Amino acid sequence: HDQIREGRLSGERNDQIAGYLSSMDADRKIAHADLLVDMAHLAMLVRQNLIGEEQAGMIARSLLKMKRNGIPQEAFDERFEDIHAGIEGELIAEAGIEAGGRLHMARSRNDEVATCLRVRSRQDLLKILDSLSMLRKVLITIAEEHTRTVMPGFTHLQHAQPTTLAHHLLAYEEAFSRDAERLSDAYRRVNRSPLGSAAFASTGFPIDRYMTADLLGFDDILGNSMDAVSARDFALEILAALTVMMTNVSRFCEELILWSSAFVRFVELDDTYCSTSSIMPQKKNPDCAEIMRGHAGSVAGAFQAVVVSVKGLPMSYNRDLQTLTPHLWRGIDDAAVSIDLLAGMIETAAFNTERMREESDRGFSTATELADTLVRDFGLPFRTAHNIVGRAVRSGEITLATLEEAGREMGGISLIERGLSGERISQALDPDMVVAAKEIPGGPAPGVIKEAILRRREALIES
Ligand code: ARG
């Protein structure tokens, strides 16, 4: 049972109130972290001569037993306000009050939970960073095979200019690399220890905060004990970075969903990532991509929930802080599984390069290059060339005749007199030529993309 209440308060709490107050559900994610925090705190108490060796030994044995065999179910009972109380209860039951009752000296659940949240978030962040690297590797590897796979590029979802599949995939890779930067940056601030701040005012016992920080793998301690127990900006930073990351995941999924449609057929996702219909036997639906797109919403919602939870809280610890923890876990878990599955979904996808080529010059999408050719080789101002080609398109086809006609309308310009030929036109309108012309850094020309791939591989290794 919960011994914390016994001194000050009277009366058994009914299950409804106990369940209402308990954070046990969300605390499952920090149960293991709590054991680690207990061990670090215990080791520090021993070294500072704040606890006898024999009693410390008894506590250590119980903690190790829980670490080895798992924390017993009783410790997760909702009659405990949280896992910290649950594990202390278990400790006292195992090691007796003389030993087990000593572990909580010089600390509070306030610094304990803040430390556990950081230990666990840190672990989850590393996993997400790992998945991001995996995803980027997959994108770069597929891009490598498709430096000459011509496809249409879109603006306003209208065929705009041809590009390549490599160019398209590397666009996402670069976005995901910034997501990794943001998460790594957040990690640096997550990785500071609140432990030893106790309730908020620190403690009169001569503890060593640097020792526990070190044992738990933190880079540093949080300087101010009041800030340390009450700060949740680390959670905001994580969720903000994940929200941004999930917008990139969601955009990618949106395209994969669109590309899977029979209208487009640029990709076929592997069956394992798809579902079928309970009524329409022919259906193959891109459900994983849709769930990921949906999770982008729930992660953004989690971020929003934490913002609203903390914005009005006075110093220092307030119990409201407990209510934001489930949002943190929800955001992290949804983002983590999404980013993990996305790599596999891309890796196993079959890209339909024929369909891409077929669409690459649809909707006069090579017209820009023709206008550029009129500027480059025939001396026209760009606006004039833009107008001439636009008029030809409006007539329904781009031919020597329609261009000549458009030129005449534009103040008597004869393109034929300037040397334009049908052959020169079809050259300019050829998607491969259009792509090959884009040799500027960041562009899709195969040579440029191959260099970009080398640089992206280096960036990935360095990250
Ligand atoms: N379970 C709480 C949390 O998640 C920590 C307990 C602090 N309780 C308290 N009454 N000060 O924030």
Topology diagram in text:
Blueprint: H1 15-21, H2 24-27, H3 31-47, H4 53-69, H5 83-95, H6 97-100, H7 109-145, E1 150-155, E2 158-164, H8 165-190, E3 192-193, H9 209-215, E4 220-221, H10 225-230, H11 233-260, E5 267-268, H12 287-310, H13 320-347, E6 350-351, H14 353-359, H15 367-378, H16 382-395, H17 400-409, H18 422-428, H19 431-437, H20 446-462
Parallel strand pairs: 3-4
Antiparallel strand pairs: 1-2, 5-6
Helix pairs in contact: 3-4, 3-7, 3-9, 4-5, 7-8, 7-13, 7-20, 8-11, 8-20, 11-12, 11-13, 12-13, 15-16, 16-17
Question: Can you offer a commentary on this structure?
Answer:
The chain is 63% helix and 5% strand. It has 463 residues and is mainly α. It has 3 domains: 15-105, Orthogonal Bundle (Fumarase C, Chain B, domain 1), CATH 1.10.275.10; 110-157 and 165-197 and 223-359, Up-down Bundle (Fumarase C, Chain A, domain 2); 362-462, Cyclin A, domain 1. The chain has a two-stranded antiparallel sheet. Strand 3 (192-193), helix 9 (209-215) and strand 4 form a beta-alpha-beta unit.
